[in-house]
């Protein structure tokens, strides 16, 4: 941290270093005689600024008081000065992140107040924090922005400090022929405003310039003179960087002198509470005594450990302090916004109350006139609604009943008809073939009667009001039973139906509804399967849901028909009678699946065929 940080409070204030010791008692006395709170806040901020060189903890003390009073007064300029002082404190303590936060808050308040001079100096401070953190590109950008903003100030005293900080940190990046013109410009401004502290700082910068240009003796002499002058003026913080740098310069040629500088820096930093510099000096001493294998290395190792622990505690405490400050800021802003709009809201609400009272009066009169009329209309509408719902339910039931009867009886009756036609030619049949045909007709008739009985039971339940009462059913047995009516048909076309459902898998469903779905899926698969193909019926339990799949090896379903396959309202065009019959039955399957609180869908197989699926709770 090779810089010296100033503080401004509303008006740009520079105090001559030679008068500093006289000013402090005057400011202490002014605290007791301040005629108003704004003056009191300004005096606290001035004290905090002057005292940071001698005791940074005093700056912290006065800055917290100033911020608390300024918050109560909603005095943004005073609050900005206190935040700037807190940024200085945390920068000296080594907490760069928190220092950056306070500087940013101060800049925001200065910008709201239109205080350009203080915006320049806070911009400079932000750049210097970036420099300490090693983010040199950002640091240079902020310092140059500060220089650009400062050129337009009527009172440009801040520019000497901006230039000095830029030259001290980025000496190596400035062209040699520009070093002394920059330095002379800064000295001219500082001399014009009689700022002795900045002049001392510039002497140190000049020493760095001489070192860079190879004038070692002249540079060291100037740095030593600058340190002595700064210490005589109680500018301890300003001297620490140079003292450490002098130690580094002698670390090879004169180790005794180097350690002397390091000890001097450590003593000043510990006495004045400059925690970061205490760590830097202790680290250098630890490195030196470690390299020479001196027993003193243990002393500085313990000191470094203590400093790191104190640093961790301070960072934790300071972070909590900033969070508390941020919460208070949010609460204050919320309260101010609430107060600001409260009066407007009261006036608006008052007007609204009057208007609403008038409207309510007329509305009540209209309401009384229309109430009876509305009640009558509501009764008629409700009656009509019930009738329409009943008609729609009856109509839907009739359609589904017709489709159900047509779907489940057509195939068995066609089979009986085909067998009867074969019996007409009984002379061509052997006794064994006759017995086989009769047995097939008997089995088909039994299956048809069973289906008829089941449908009659389903119709009775529908007419009496359907109530879904699921039971635990063995899925393998259900599928086996549903396959029987299609045994002859499948054998006729050489189609193999394989029941791959696990015998131990159960499903929770209505028996007749789910069997209708099974029969429909199997029948559709046979209708659209090529000869000598296979139909596979599979099922799995997936997270408490049983999924049943019937897969064929046909041509699959055209993509444009897949989405509306189960939809009553979909406008589907059928290529033939097979598709139309299957479509109506599939719509009934969807209705049955929804009654059982399940879902149904279809998809094309991979690489061919169609797969019809439904899912119910296990």
TrEMBL record:
TPR repeats by residue range: 80-113
Reactions it catalyzes: ATP + protein L-histidine = ADP + protein N-phospho-L-histidine
UniProt entry keywords in alphabetical sequence: Kinase, Membrane, Phosphoprotein, Signal, TPR repeat, Transferase, Transmembrane, Transmembrane helix, Two-component regulatory system
Name recorded for this polypeptide: histidine kinase
Broad enzyme group: transferase
Record organism: Deminuibacter soli
Top-level lineage group: Bacteria
EC number: 2.7.13.3
Domain Histidine kinase: 404-618
């Amino acid at each position: 941290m090779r810089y010296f940080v100033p503080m401004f409070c509303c008006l740009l204030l520079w105090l001559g270093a030679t008068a500093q010791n006289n000013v402090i008692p005057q400011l202490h006395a002014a605290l007791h005689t301040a005629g108003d709170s704004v003056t009191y806040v300004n005096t606290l901020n001035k004290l905090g600024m002057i005292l940071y060189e001698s005791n940074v903890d005093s700056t912290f003390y006065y800055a917290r008081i100033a911020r608390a009073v300024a918050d109560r007064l909603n005095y943004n300029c005073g609050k900005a000065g206190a935040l700037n002082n807190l940024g200085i404190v945390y920068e000296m303590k080594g907490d760069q992140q928190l220092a950056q936060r306070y500087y940013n808050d101060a800049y925001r308040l200065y910008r709201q107040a239109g205080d350009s001079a203080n915006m320049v100096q806070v911009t400079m401070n932000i750049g210097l924090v970036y420099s300490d953190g090693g983010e040199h590109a950002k640091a240079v950008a902020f310092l140059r922005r500060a220089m650009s903003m400062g050129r337009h100030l009527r009172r440009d005293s801040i520019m000497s400090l901006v230039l000095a900080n830029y030259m001290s940190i980025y000496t190596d990046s400035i062209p040699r022929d520009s070093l002394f013109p920059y330095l002379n410009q800064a000295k001219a401004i500082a001399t014009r405003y009689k700022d002795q502290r900045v002049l001392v700082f510039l002497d140190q910068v000049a020493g760095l310039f001489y070192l860079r240009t190879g004038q070692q003796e002249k540079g060291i002499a100037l740095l030593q003179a600058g340190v002595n002058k700064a210490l005589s003026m109680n500018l301890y913080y300003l001297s620490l960087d140079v003292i450490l740098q002098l130690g580094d310069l002698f670390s090879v040629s004169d180790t005794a002198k180097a350690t002397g500088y390091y000890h001097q820096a450590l003593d000043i930093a510990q006495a004045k509470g400059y925690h970061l510099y205490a760590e830097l000096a202790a680290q250098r001493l630890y490195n030196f005594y470690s390299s020479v294998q001196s027993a003193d290395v243990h002393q500085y190792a313990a000191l470094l450990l203590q400093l790191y622990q104190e640093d961790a505690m301070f960072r934790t405490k300071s972070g909590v302090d900033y969070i508390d400050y941020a919460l208070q800021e949010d609460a204050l802003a919320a309260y101010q916004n609430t107060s600001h709009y409260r009066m407007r809201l009261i006036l608006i609400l008052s007007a609204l109350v009057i208007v609403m009272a008038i409207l309510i009066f007329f509305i009540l009169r209209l309401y009384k006139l229309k109430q009876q009329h509305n009640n009558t209309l509501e009764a008629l509408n409700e009656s009509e609604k019930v009738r329409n719902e009943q008609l729609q339910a009856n109509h839907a039931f009739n359609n589904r009943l017709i489709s159900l009867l047509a779907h489940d009886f057509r195939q068995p009756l066609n089979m009986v008809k085909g067998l009867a036609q074969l019996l007409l030619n009984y002379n061509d049949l052997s006794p064994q073939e006759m017995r086989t045909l009769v047995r097939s007709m008997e089995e088909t008739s039994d299956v048809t009667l069973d289906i008829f009985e089941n449908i009659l039971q389903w119709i009775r339940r529908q007419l009496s009001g359907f109530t879904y009462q699921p039971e635990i059913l063995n899925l393998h047995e259900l599928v086996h039973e549903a396959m029987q009516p299609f045994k002859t048909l499948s054998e006729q076309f050489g189609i193999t139906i394989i029941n791959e459902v696990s015998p131990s898998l159960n499903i929770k469903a209505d028996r007749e509804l789910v069997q209708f779905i099974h029969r429909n899926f199997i029948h559709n698969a046979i209708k659209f399967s090529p000869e000598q193909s296979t139909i596979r019926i599979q099922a799995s339990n997936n997270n408490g849901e049983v999924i049943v799949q019937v897969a064929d090896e046909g041509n699959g379903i055209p993509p444009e028909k897949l989405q509306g396959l189960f939809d009553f309202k979909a406008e589907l065009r059928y290529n033939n009678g097979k598709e139309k019959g299957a479509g109506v039955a599939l719509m009934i399957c969807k209705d049955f699946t929804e009654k059982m609180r399940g879902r149904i869908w279809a998809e094309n197989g991979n690489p061919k065929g169609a797969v019809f699926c439904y899912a119910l709770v296990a």
